[in-house]
Amino acid sequence: MALQLGSRIRARRRQLSLTLRDVSETCGLSVPYLSQLERNQANPTVTSLAGIARALGVSLNYFISDPEHQAVVVRRTDDTYLSVQEIPFRIKSLAGRGQGLELEPMMIHVEAGFSSPLTTHLGEEFLYVLQGALQLQVGEDRHTLHPGDSAQHASTTPHAWANPSGSETVILWVGTPKLL
């Protein structure tokens, strides 16, 4: 059964741990009006819906079209990596470009000697060390992870990675919301 528009808005807002007031301040619509929308007691204009989409970090299609429930397959022979100039990672998306999917699984190669600053963002992260070692800081807790070790945390908690070794570390990273 397809979700109604109001239910999709509420679900996305709650997924991001935002209040109606948070969304209201970002999109410029009143809290009572947003509440009516979430309860399917009002219909937004395209302009209002675009503002809500922006506030919730999604495109209009998120609210308009039903997500396709087809499998997205990425073959091991697909050696397409993304390199981000600001960070010394090689990143391979393991999910392709499936529509309506929330999780973002990636294979990340972390260069030797890399150390990140503490950061926060919306979502949740899971990582599994495949090769090498990774130092993970989440809040005040520090952990050294080795092959076979995993960790999961809310991305809203300050966190950082470091690879103090002399060789590359490879991790399987799964997070929300999608980055690529």
Give the uncertain stretches in residue-range form. Answer: none
Q: What name does the CATH topology of the largest domain carry?
A: Jelly Rolls
Number of distinct helices: 5
Tally of strands? 9
Structural class: alpha+beta
Would you mind describing this structure in some detail?
This protein folds into two domains: 5-64, 434 Repressor (Amino-terminal Domain); 82-176, Sandwich (Jelly Rolls), CATH 2.60.120. It has helices at residues 5-15, 20-27, 31-38, 46-55, 61-64; strands at residues 82-83, 89-93, 104-110, 124-131, 134-138, 141-145, 150-154, 159-162, 169-176. The strands form two sheets. It has a six-stranded antiparallel sheet, with no helix packed on it. The two termini are 28 Å apart. Helix 2 (20-27) crosses helix 4 (46-55). The radius of gyration is 19 Å and the shape is elongated. The model has no long low-confidence stretch (mean pLDDT 82). The chain is α+β, with helices and mostly antiparallel strands and 180 residues long.
